[in-house]
Amino acid sequence: xxxxxxxxxxxxxxxxxxxxxxxxxxxxxxxxxxxxxxxxxxxxxxxxxxxxxxxxxxxxxxxxxxxxxxxxxxxxxxxxxxxxxxxxxxxxxxxxxxxxxxxxxxxxxxxxxxxxxxxxxxxxxxxxxxxxxxxxxxxxxxxxxxxxxxxxxxxxxxxxxxxxxxxxxxxxxxxxxxxxxxxxxxxxxxxxxxxxxxxxxxxxxxxxxxxxxxxxxxxxxxxxxxxxxxxxxxxxxxxxxxxxxxxxxxxxxxxxxxxxxxxxxxxxxxxxxxxxxxxxxxxxxxxxxx
Length: 290
What we know:
- This protein is α+β, with helices and mostly antiparallel strands.
- The chain has two domains: 137 residues, Roll (Nuclear Transport Factor 2, Chain: A), CATH 3.10.450.50; 113 residues, Nuclear Transport Factor 2, Chain: A (Roll).
- A hairpin with a 2-residue loop joins strand 9 and strand 10.
- The longest helix is centred in the middle third of the chain and has 17 residues.
- It is globular.
């Protein structure tokens, strides 16, 4: 149903993103001015990613990342300091490419669906918690997209515009019910209740489009003892987009799982996902989805 990253690949990639790699001499992490209160939370997140992480502007990190920044990326320690040291430790000729595809907000939570490229493309879902225009907490999952997809869609293409904001609560409820009944509960007879039949667009590269294909994929996994066991941690949504963050277990392997859904006319019409193996010895004790 999904394609996982090997531990080595996941660890290597995670170290390239919001990492807290140790450097010989730490960068001064003192504040660099107060956050610009005229910016929206989404603008703050994109500023940190584009100008801070990718652009290497340490003052942006000092200004918009909290000193006690809580990190859930397993290769990174807590705090602003780790992010500063990581950026400073990068080769001076390093050129990290970044493209944001989707972004939406639910209270203090901001979701970004991104493509990073540093010699190899990675699809990343980042989840940030923003308070008083400062990034205070971060979760993510990183996956290498395959060269080919059985559904001919990429892991990032599709609709991007947030619509139907008045239906946020209803859409979150619908997606949570689908996850509880079908993904967690395993009741495949209910899949047509939630998904828009053969009009459904799938971006998981191992599954064809349509509700039937997803149902068949889950049944196949179950028959071979390779189904996913989901423990839902958060449901984040705005308008037509709903993100479900879970810890999943497959064949004894623990995974950080992010399922992103688009809802239209009370049906799930599109799905993306990103997953990453949870390593045994993380650099922090926060858990990838805790």
